[in-house]
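haha ok so turns out i had the wrong file open the whole time. this is the CORRECT one, sorry everyone. sequence first:
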Amino acid sequence: MSSLETKLGRAIFRNPVLGASGCTGHGYEMAEYTDLSRYGAVSLKTVTYHARPGNPPERVNEVPGGIISSIGLQNPGPDVFLEEIMPKALSALDRDQIVVSVAGDTVEEYVELCQRTVERYGDRIAAVELNAACPNVNHGTGYFSRDAHAARELVAAAKGAVEVPVFYKFNTNFENYLEVATAVSETGVDAIYTSNTPMGMKIDLRKKRPVLGNVVGPVCGPAIRPIGMLRIWNLYQAVSVPLVASGGARTWEDVIEYMLAGAAAVGVGSAQFPHPDIVPQIVSGLEAYVEREKLDSLSVLVGAAHR
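then structure:
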């Protein structure tokens, strides 16, 4: 067993550093800029039941300590994803690195997307991720982050429909996020993946109007890491399911801190924009850390700050 090997329920990854959905594209787009073999896994850009054009531009803009964005789950839909995009992802990533992220407006849409994916590529992916986190759509995903009963129903239905590991990614900006996580944990979900991006806005002084076409959008980057840390700390105390943290991670020290707070793995997102080779650098830092600290496994650190 590698000292960096990471288990999320039934899924086993080579290390705990994951490329977050959206920010890492479908993996293959990053191939000329970084060593993809160093990623623990990549959650591919979310595919929805129907193709979506996304939100009006401008969609991304810099803010102090990070970025503000409003993409709106733009994607070409499942037919193009399965026929054209997945083969490219498979050519760039190993099967143990591929997490397919899906989203829909109803439980039935989520389940059908999971089933279609697994029927076609079930033996070549590590897990499916139920994206209930995106704050930039008017319906569907946000509902499954804020309603505990709906979240439990969604995850239970997906787990009953496919044999591969199932992750639940949700938005912790709702006050009842611990209630939602507790309900989902009762389904036996393999991992809960957090999204901790608070909503914000920025105004263009020259144009005298909001910079984002959607007016508001989530803030990402180092500035929000303390928020993510608190969310993981609270979730670790509330549930026994493996947790994937996200929000502002850009160094190996950030990953260790998240693990001490309770995360089994950490998603790296917007840090890849200015530094597309950041994940291999983080993994190298973790390797040096475990050697220096003489650790057999990073898993001994998960939740250690609570003890």
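The first helix runs from residue 78 to 92.
again sry for the mixup
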